[in-house]
Protein backbone atom coordinates (compact mmCIF):
# COMPACT_ATOMS: atom_id res chain seq x y z
CA UNK A 1 0.00 0.00 0.00
CA UNK A 2 1.25 3.50 -0.85
CA UNK A 3 2.50 5.60 2.04
CA UNK A 4 1.64 8.86 0.28
CA UNK A 5 -1.22 9.32 -2.15
CA UNK A 6 -1.93 12.62 -3.89
CA UNK A 7 -5.19 12.98 -5.79
CA UNK A 8 -6.21 15.83 -8.11
CA UNK A 9 -4.25 18.34 -6.06
CA UNK A 10 -4.60 21.95 -7.15
CA UNK A 11 -3.37 25.27 -5.81
CA UNK A 12 -4.30 28.66 -7.25
CA UNK A 13 -2.87 31.78 -5.64
CA UNK A 14 -5.32 34.69 -5.86
CA UNK A 15 -9.03 35.32 -5.61
CA UNK A 16 -10.46 34.42 -9.01
CA UNK A 17 -9.59 30.77 -8.68
CA UNK A 18 -12.46 29.28 -10.67
CA UNK A 19 -11.88 31.57 -13.65
CA UNK A 20 -8.18 30.66 -13.52
CA UNK A 21 -8.98 26.94 -13.41
CA UNK A 22 -11.35 27.27 -16.36
CA UNK A 23 -8.60 28.98 -18.33
CA UNK A 24 -6.21 26.13 -17.46
CA UNK A 25 -8.72 23.65 -18.86
CA UNK A 26 -8.87 25.75 -22.03
CA UNK A 27 -5.13 25.43 -22.45
CA UNK A 28 -4.20 28.99 -21.51
CA UNK A 29 -0.67 29.68 -20.31
CA UNK A 30 0.22 30.71 -16.77
CA UNK A 31 1.12 34.16 -18.09
CA UNK A 32 -2.24 34.59 -19.84
CA UNK A 33 -4.08 33.51 -16.70
CA UNK A 34 -2.09 35.90 -14.53
CA UNK A 35 -2.73 38.83 -16.86
CA UNK A 36 -6.47 38.20 -17.09
CA UNK A 37 -7.28 37.08 -13.53
CA UNK A 38 -4.40 38.23 -11.31
CA UNK A 39 -4.28 34.60 -10.18
CA UNK A 40 -1.31 32.27 -10.38
CA UNK A 41 -1.75 28.55 -10.95
CA UNK A 42 0.88 26.92 -8.74
CA UNK A 43 -0.23 23.29 -9.08
CA UNK A 44 -3.01 21.87 -11.22
CA UNK A 45 -4.72 18.47 -10.95
CA UNK A 46 -1.65 16.54 -9.78
CA UNK A 47 -1.95 12.88 -8.77
CA UNK A 48 0.72 10.35 -7.80
CA UNK A 49 1.57 7.64 -5.25
CA UNK A 50 4.81 7.13 -3.32
CA UNK A 51 5.68 3.69 -1.99
CA UNK A 52 7.49 2.78 1.20
CA UNK A 53 11.26 2.88 0.78
CA UNK A 54 11.04 4.97 -2.39
CA UNK A 55 12.91 8.14 -3.30
CA UNK A 56 10.36 10.02 -5.40
CA UNK A 57 11.88 13.03 -7.15
CA UNK A 58 9.79 15.99 -8.25
CA UNK A 59 11.69 18.15 -10.68
CA UNK A 60 11.24 21.00 -13.08
CA UNK A 61 12.50 24.44 -13.95
CA UNK A 62 11.94 27.54 -11.82
CA UNK A 63 8.22 28.30 -11.65
CA UNK A 64 7.15 24.78 -12.54
CA UNK A 65 5.34 24.30 -9.22
CA UNK A 66 7.60 21.71 -7.62
CA UNK A 67 8.26 23.61 -4.37
CA UNK A 68 4.60 24.54 -4.07
CA UNK A 69 3.68 20.89 -4.50
CA UNK A 70 5.95 19.63 -1.73
CA UNK A 71 4.59 22.27 0.65
CA UNK A 72 1.05 21.21 -0.15
CA UNK A 73 1.86 17.68 1.01
CA UNK A 74 2.32 18.78 4.63
CA UNK A 75 0.00 21.77 4.23
CA UNK A 76 2.55 24.48 4.71
CA UNK A 77 0.52 25.77 1.78
CA UNK A 78 -3.24 25.18 1.84
CA UNK A 79 -4.59 23.40 -1.25
CA UNK A 80 -7.35 24.91 -3.34
CA UNK A 81 -8.75 21.46 -4.04
CA UNK A 82 -7.75 17.81 -4.05
CA UNK A 83 -6.59 15.37 -1.39
CA UNK A 84 -3.34 14.24 0.24
CA UNK A 85 -3.34 10.90 2.05
CA UNK A 86 -0.53 9.85 4.38
CA UNK A 87 -0.97 6.36 5.80
CA UNK A 88 -4.60 6.63 4.63
CA UNK A 89 -5.22 9.75 6.75
CA UNK A 90 -6.54 12.66 4.67
CA UNK A 91 -4.12 15.51 5.36
CA UNK A 92 -6.28 17.98 3.46
CA UNK A 93 -9.05 17.57 6.06
CA UNK A 94 -6.95 17.46 9.22
CA UNK A 95 -7.55 19.83 12.11
CA UNK A 96 -4.74 22.18 13.10
CA UNK A 97 -3.81 19.99 16.06
CA UNK A 98 -3.79 16.80 13.99
CA UNK A 99 -1.69 18.56 11.37
CA UNK A 100 0.74 19.76 14.04
CA UNK A 101 1.14 16.18 15.27
CA UNK A 102 1.66 14.93 11.74
CA UNK A 103 4.51 17.38 11.19
CA UNK A 104 6.10 16.50 14.51
CA UNK A 105 5.90 12.72 14.22
CA UNK A 106 5.26 11.54 10.65
CA UNK A 107 6.61 14.10 8.19
CA UNK A 108 9.87 16.04 8.40
CA UNK A 109 11.24 18.63 6.01
CA UNK A 110 14.84 19.39 5.04
CA UNK A 111 15.35 22.82 3.47
CA UNK A 112 17.91 24.24 1.06
CA UNK A 113 19.24 26.76 3.60
CA UNK A 114 19.84 24.07 6.28
CA UNK A 115 17.58 25.83 8.84
CA UNK A 116 20.00 25.29 11.73
CA UNK A 117 20.00 27.29 14.96
CA UNK A 118 23.38 29.08 15.09
CA UNK A 119 23.52 29.24 18.91
CA UNK A 120 22.77 25.54 19.38
CA UNK A 121 25.40 22.83 19.10
CA UNK A 122 25.19 20.16 16.46
CA UNK A 123 23.71 17.77 19.02
CA UNK A 124 21.18 20.36 20.24
CA UNK A 125 20.15 21.04 16.64
CA UNK A 126 19.67 17.33 16.05
CA UNK A 127 17.58 17.08 19.22
CA UNK A 128 15.30 19.98 18.37
CA UNK A 129 12.41 18.10 16.78
CA UNK A 130 12.31 15.65 19.66
CA UNK A 131 12.47 18.52 22.14
CA UNK A 132 9.41 20.12 20.54
CA UNK A 133 7.60 16.80 20.87
CA UNK A 134 8.34 16.75 24.60
CA UNK A 135 10.69 13.77 24.53
CA UNK A 136 12.77 13.44 27.71
CA UNK A 137 16.32 14.80 27.58
CA UNK A 138 18.09 11.46 27.93
CA UNK A 139 15.99 9.74 25.27
CA UNK A 140 16.20 12.57 22.74
CA UNK A 141 19.97 12.84 23.21
CA UNK A 142 20.34 9.11 22.57
CA UNK A 143 18.24 9.29 19.39
CA UNK A 144 20.01 12.44 18.19
CA UNK A 145 23.42 10.86 18.73
CA UNK A 146 22.32 7.79 16.77
CA UNK A 147 21.18 10.00 13.88
CA UNK A 148 24.45 11.95 13.97
CA UNK A 149 26.38 8.69 14.01
CA UNK A 150 24.43 7.47 10.96
CA UNK A 151 25.34 10.74 9.24
CA UNK A 152 29.02 10.58 10.19
CA UNK A 153 28.77 13.59 12.51
CA UNK A 154 28.92 12.21 16.02
CA UNK A 155 32.44 13.48 16.64
CA UNK A 156 31.23 17.03 15.82
CA UNK A 157 28.28 16.98 18.21
CA UNK A 158 29.64 19.74 20.48
CA UNK A 159 30.53 22.13 17.67
CA UNK A 160 28.35 24.94 16.33
CA UNK A 161 27.01 25.23 12.78
CA UNK A 162 29.37 28.06 11.82
CA UNK A 163 32.30 25.74 12.53
CA UNK A 164 31.11 23.27 9.88
CA UNK A 165 31.29 23.28 6.10
CA UNK A 166 28.13 23.68 4.04
CA UNK A 167 27.98 19.97 3.35
CA UNK A 168 28.35 19.11 7.02
CA UNK A 169 25.67 21.64 7.96
CA UNK A 170 23.31 19.97 5.53
CA UNK A 171 24.17 16.62 7.09
CA UNK A 172 23.10 18.06 10.44
CA UNK A 173 19.79 19.11 8.89
CA UNK A 174 19.33 15.60 7.58
CA UNK A 175 20.32 14.09 10.93
CA UNK A 176 17.72 16.26 12.69
CA UNK A 177 15.04 14.89 10.39
CA UNK A 178 16.26 11.32 10.92
CA UNK A 179 16.35 11.74 14.71
CA UNK A 180 12.59 12.28 14.69
CA UNK A 181 12.25 8.81 13.16
CA UNK A 182 9.60 10.16 10.79
CA UNK A 183 8.19 7.92 8.10
CA UNK A 184 8.42 10.61 5.44
CA UNK A 185 11.14 13.11 4.53
CA UNK A 186 10.37 16.09 2.31
CA UNK A 187 13.57 17.54 0.87
CA UNK A 188 13.19 20.85 -0.96
CA UNK A 189 16.27 21.60 -3.10
CA UNK A 190 18.22 20.25 -0.13
CA UNK A 191 21.58 20.03 -1.91
CA UNK A 192 21.34 22.85 -4.45
CA UNK A 193 23.33 25.37 -2.34
CA UNK A 194 26.34 23.03 -2.17
CA UNK A 195 29.28 22.96 -4.54
CA UNK A 196 29.32 20.04 -7.02
CA UNK A 197 31.74 17.75 -5.17
CA UNK A 198 30.01 18.17 -1.80
CA UNK A 199 26.65 17.79 -3.51
CA UNK A 200 27.67 14.45 -4.95
CA UNK A 201 28.90 13.32 -1.54
CA UNK A 202 25.53 14.26 -0.05
CA UNK A 203 23.73 12.30 -2.74
CA UNK A 204 25.90 9.29 -1.87
CA UNK A 205 25.14 9.76 1.83
CA UNK A 206 21.42 9.95 1.15
CA UNK A 207 21.45 6.78 -0.95
CA UNK A 208 23.45 4.95 1.71
CA UNK A 209 21.10 6.06 4.48
CA UNK A 210 18.06 5.14 2.42
CA UNK A 211 19.43 1.66 1.77
CA UNK A 212 19.49 1.08 5.53
CA UNK A 213 16.47 3.08 6.70
CA UNK A 214 13.98 2.67 3.82
CA UNK A 215 12.12 5.94 4.40
CA UNK A 216 9.68 7.60 2.05
CA UNK A 217 11.64 10.49 0.56
CA UNK A 218 10.07 13.13 -1.67
CA UNK A 219 12.97 15.09 -3.12
CA UNK A 220 12.66 18.38 -5.00
CA UNK A 221 15.33 19.42 -7.51
CA UNK A 222 15.80 21.40 -10.71
CA UNK A 223 18.81 19.28 -11.67
CA UNK A 224 17.97 16.38 -13.97
CA UNK A 225 21.30 14.63 -13.37
CA UNK A 226 20.64 14.71 -9.62
CA UNK A 227 17.13 13.37 -10.19
CA UNK A 228 18.44 10.55 -12.35
CA UNK A 229 21.13 9.68 -9.83
CA UNK A 230 19.01 9.38 -6.71
CA UNK A 231 15.41 8.93 -7.84
CA UNK A 232 13.61 5.60 -7.96
CA UNK A 233 10.98 7.47 -9.94
CA UNK A 234 10.80 11.02 -11.25
CA UNK A 235 7.86 13.37 -11.77
CA UNK A 236 8.71 16.07 -14.30
CA UNK A 237 6.63 19.26 -13.90
CA UNK A 238 5.85 22.22 -16.11
CA UNK A 239 3.47 25.11 -15.38
CA UNK A 240 2.03 23.34 -12.35
CA UNK A 241 1.27 20.11 -14.17
CA UNK A 242 3.05 16.77 -14.20
CA UNK A 243 4.28 16.01 -17.69
CA UNK A 244 5.49 12.47 -16.96
CA UNK A 245 6.15 10.10 -14.08
CA UNK A 246 8.55 7.21 -14.48
CA UNK A 247 11.98 5.83 -13.78
CA UNK A 248 14.92 7.71 -15.21
CA UNK A 249 15.24 5.09 -17.92
CA UNK A 250 11.56 5.34 -18.84
CA UNK A 251 11.70 9.11 -19.12
CA UNK A 252 14.84 9.03 -21.25
CA UNK A 253 13.82 6.18 -23.50
CA UNK A 254 10.12 6.92 -23.85
CA UNK A 255 9.46 10.66 -23.30
CA UNK A 256 5.75 11.46 -23.02
CA UNK A 257 5.88 14.61 -25.15
CA UNK A 258 8.17 17.11 -26.86
CA UNK A 259 8.77 19.04 -23.63
CA UNK A 260 10.11 15.96 -21.85
CA UNK A 261 12.20 15.02 -24.89
CA UNK A 262 13.76 18.48 -25.10
CA UNK A 263 14.27 18.64 -21.35
CA UNK A 264 16.27 15.42 -21.34
CA UNK A 265 18.14 15.73 -24.62
CA UNK A 266 21.41 16.96 -23.08
CA UNK A 267 21.65 14.18 -20.49
CA UNK A 268 24.64 11.84 -20.68
CA UNK A 269 22.60 8.73 -21.37
CA UNK A 270 25.54 6.40 -20.92
CA UNK A 271 25.39 7.15 -17.17
CA UNK A 272 21.68 6.41 -16.95
CA UNK A 273 20.73 3.80 -19.53
CA UNK A 274 21.47 0.18 -18.77
CA UNK A 275 22.15 -3.04 -20.62
CA UNK A 276 18.43 -3.75 -20.55
CA UNK A 277 17.79 -0.61 -22.63
CA UNK A 278 20.15 -1.44 -25.47
CA UNK A 279 20.12 -5.23 -25.49
CA UNK A 280 18.74 -7.19 -28.42
CA UNK A 281 16.82 -10.46 -28.46
CA UNK A 282 19.31 -13.30 -27.92
CA UNK A 283 19.68 -16.00 -30.54
CA UNK A 284 20.42 -19.16 -28.58
CA UNK A 285 20.99 -22.86 -29.00
CA UNK A 286 20.27 -25.45 -26.31
CA UNK A 287 23.44 -27.52 -26.13
CA UNK A 288 21.74 -30.19 -24.02
CA UNK A 289 19.13 -31.07 -26.64
CA UNK A 290 20.25 -29.60 -29.99
CA UNK A 291 23.03 -30.81 -32.26
CA UNK A 292 25.33 -29.28 -34.90
CA UNK A 293 22.79 -29.54 -37.71
CA UNK A 294 20.15 -27.63 -35.73
CA UNK A 295 22.71 -24.95 -34.90
CA UNK A 296 23.77 -24.53 -38.53
CA UNK A 297 20.17 -24.46 -39.75
CA UNK A 298 19.32 -21.73 -37.23
CA UNK A 299 22.35 -19.68 -38.25
CA UNK A 300 21.38 -19.92 -41.92
CA UNK A 301 17.80 -18.89 -41.16
CA UNK A 302 18.83 -15.93 -39.00
CA UNK A 303 21.78 -15.01 -41.25
CA UNK A 304 24.25 -14.98 -38.37
CA UNK A 305 27.51 -16.77 -37.68
CA UNK A 306 27.23 -17.20 -33.91
CA UNK A 307 24.67 -18.35 -31.33
CA UNK A 308 24.71 -18.14 -27.56
CA UNK A 309 24.98 -21.60 -26.01
CA UNK A 310 22.57 -22.21 -23.12
CA UNK A 311 21.24 -25.19 -21.18
CA UNK A 312 17.61 -26.21 -20.67
CA UNK A 313 17.17 -23.49 -18.03
CA UNK A 314 18.77 -20.83 -20.27
CA UNK A 315 21.90 -20.55 -18.17
CA UNK A 316 24.82 -19.31 -20.26
CA UNK A 317 27.39 -21.91 -21.30
CA UNK A 318 29.29 -19.95 -23.95
CA UNK A 319 28.87 -19.49 -27.68
CA UNK A 320 28.80 -21.63 -30.82
CA UNK A 321 30.23 -20.31 -34.09
CA UNK A 322 29.44 -21.66 -37.52
CA UNK A 323 33.00 -23.00 -37.69
CA UNK A 324 32.56 -24.79 -34.35
CA UNK A 325 29.29 -26.36 -35.50
CA UNK A 326 30.82 -27.55 -38.80
CA UNK A 327 33.76 -29.12 -36.95
CA UNK A 328 31.37 -30.89 -34.57
CA UNK A 329 29.31 -32.29 -37.43
CA UNK A 330 32.36 -33.51 -39.38
CA UNK A 331 33.98 -35.08 -36.31
CA UNK A 332 30.82 -36.56 -34.82
CA UNK A 333 30.97 -34.39 -31.71
CA UNK A 334 28.23 -32.72 -29.70
CA UNK A 335 27.83 -28.97 -29.34
CA UNK A 336 29.03 -29.28 -25.75
CA UNK A 337 32.39 -30.44 -27.10
CA UNK A 338 32.96 -27.29 -29.17
CA UNK A 339 31.56 -24.53 -26.95
CA UNK A 340 33.63 -21.36 -26.87
CA UNK A 341 33.44 -20.22 -23.25
CA UNK A 342 34.89 -16.80 -24.04
CA UNK A 343 31.55 -15.01 -23.62
CA UNK A 344 31.15 -12.52 -20.82
CA UNK A 345 27.86 -12.00 -19.02
CA UNK A 346 26.59 -8.75 -17.50
CA UNK A 347 23.72 -7.82 -15.23
CA UNK A 348 20.65 -6.31 -16.89
CA UNK A 349 21.14 -3.15 -14.76
CA UNK A 350 24.79 -2.58 -15.74
CA UNK A 351 25.27 1.02 -16.89
CA UNK A 352 26.37 1.61 -20.46
CA UNK A 353 29.35 3.64 -19.28
CA UNK A 354 30.53 0.54 -17.37
CA UNK A 355 29.83 -1.79 -20.28
CA UNK A 356 32.05 0.10 -22.71
CA UNK A 357 35.40 -1.32 -21.56
CA UNK A 358 33.98 -4.83 -21.41
CA UNK A 359 32.57 -4.81 -24.93
CA UNK A 360 35.64 -3.05 -26.35
CA UNK A 361 37.90 -5.91 -25.27
CA UNK A 362 35.45 -8.74 -25.90
CA UNK A 363 35.70 -10.82 -29.10
CA UNK A 364 32.02 -11.72 -28.74
CA UNK A 365 28.81 -9.94 -27.75
CA UNK A 366 27.97 -9.64 -24.05
CA UNK A 367 25.22 -11.87 -22.71
CA UNK A 368 22.71 -10.04 -20.50
CA UNK A 369 21.37 -12.07 -17.58
CA UNK A 370 18.51 -11.53 -15.13
CA UNK A 371 18.47 -11.88 -11.35
CA UNK A 372 18.41 -15.68 -11.65
CA UNK A 373 21.42 -15.65 -14.02
CA UNK A 374 19.39 -16.69 -17.06
CA UNK A 375 20.11 -15.18 -20.48
CA UNK A 376 17.59 -12.49 -21.46
CA UNK A 377 19.45 -10.52 -24.11
CA UNK A 378 22.68 -9.67 -25.85
CA UNK A 379 24.65 -6.42 -26.18
CA UNK A 380 26.85 -5.71 -29.19
CA UNK A 381 29.56 -3.12 -29.70
CA UNK A 382 27.56 -0.92 -32.07
CA UNK A 383 24.74 -0.35 -29.59
CA UNK A 384 27.16 0.66 -26.83
CA UNK A 385 29.13 3.03 -29.03
CA UNK A 386 25.89 4.60 -30.22
CA UNK A 387 24.74 5.19 -26.65
CA UNK A 388 28.15 6.53 -25.58
CA UNK A 389 28.06 9.07 -28.41
CA UNK A 390 24.44 10.02 -27.60
CA UNK A 391 23.35 8.77 -31.00
CA UNK A 392 20.62 6.43 -29.96
CA UNK A 393 20.86 3.55 -32.38
CA UNK A 394 18.78 1.19 -30.29
CA UNK A 395 16.00 3.45 -29.09
CA UNK A 396 14.43 5.80 -31.59
CA UNK A 397 12.79 9.17 -30.97
CA UNK A 398 9.56 7.49 -30.02
CA UNK A 399 11.26 5.44 -27.32
CA UNK A 400 10.81 2.25 -29.35
CA UNK A 401 13.37 -0.43 -30.12
CA UNK A 402 14.90 -0.14 -33.58
CA UNK A 403 13.43 -2.44 -36.19
CA UNK A 404 16.74 -3.72 -37.55
CA UNK A 405 17.00 -7.44 -38.17
CA UNK A 406 17.40 -9.15 -34.81
CA UNK A 407 19.84 -11.69 -36.19
CA UNK A 408 22.47 -9.01 -36.77
CA UNK A 409 22.81 -8.57 -33.06
CA UNK A 410 24.69 -11.78 -32.51
CA UNK A 411 27.15 -11.52 -35.36
CA UNK A 412 29.79 -9.34 -33.74
TrEMBL record:
An example molecular function term from Gene Ontology annotations: ABC-type quaternary ammonium compound transporting activity
GO biological process, one term: response to osmotic stress
UniProt family annotation: Belongs to the ABC transporter superfamily.
Membrane topology category: Peripheral membrane protein
Cross-referenced Pfam families: ABC_tran (PF00005), CBS (PF00571)
Keywords per UniProt: Amino-acid transport, ATP-binding, CBS domain, Cell inner membrane, Cell membrane, Membrane, Nucleotide-binding, Transport
SMART domains, per database record: AAA (SM00382)
InterPro entries: AAA+_ATPase, ABC_osmolyte_uptake_ATP-bind, ABC_transporter-like_ATP-bd, ABC_transporter-like_CS, CBS_dom, CBS_dom_sf, Gly-betaine_transp_ATP-bd, P-loop_NTPase
Protein name per the record: Quaternary amine transport ATP-binding protein
Catalysed reactions listed for this entry: a quaternary ammonium(out) + ATP + H2O = a quaternary ammonium(in) + ADP + phosphate + H(+)
Main localization of the protein described in the UniProt heading: membrane
Chain positions covered by the region annotation Disordered: 390-412
Entry-linked NCBIfam families: proV (TIGR01186)
Superkingdom of origin organism: Bacteria
Composition bias type Basic and acidic residues, residue spans: 400-412
EC numbers on record: 7.6.2.9
One annotated Gene Ontology cellular component of this protein: plasma membrane
Subunit organization: The complex is probably composed of two ATP-binding proteins, two transmembrane proteins and a solute-binding protein.
Organism of this sequence: Staphylococcus nepalensis
Residue ranges annotated for the ABC transporter domain, each copy included: 4-264
Compartment(s): Cell inner membrane
PANTHER family: GLYCINE BETAINE/PROLINE BETAINE TRANSPORT SYSTEM ATP-BINDING PROTEIN PROV, GLYCINE BETAINE_PROLINE BETAINE TRANSPORT SYSTEM ATP-BINDING PROTEIN PROV
Amino acid sequence: MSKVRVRNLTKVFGKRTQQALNMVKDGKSKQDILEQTDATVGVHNVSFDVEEGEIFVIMGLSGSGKSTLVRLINRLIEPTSGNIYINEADVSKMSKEALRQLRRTKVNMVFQNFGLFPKRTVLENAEYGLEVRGVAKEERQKKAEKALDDSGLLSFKNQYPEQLSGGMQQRVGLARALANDSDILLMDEAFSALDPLIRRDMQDDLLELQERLQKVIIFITHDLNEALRIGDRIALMRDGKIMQIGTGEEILTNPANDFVREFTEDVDRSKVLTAENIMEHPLTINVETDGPNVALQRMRKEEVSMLLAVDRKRYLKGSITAENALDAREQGKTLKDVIDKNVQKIDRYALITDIFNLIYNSPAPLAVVDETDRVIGVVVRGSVIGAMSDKDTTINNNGEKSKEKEGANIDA
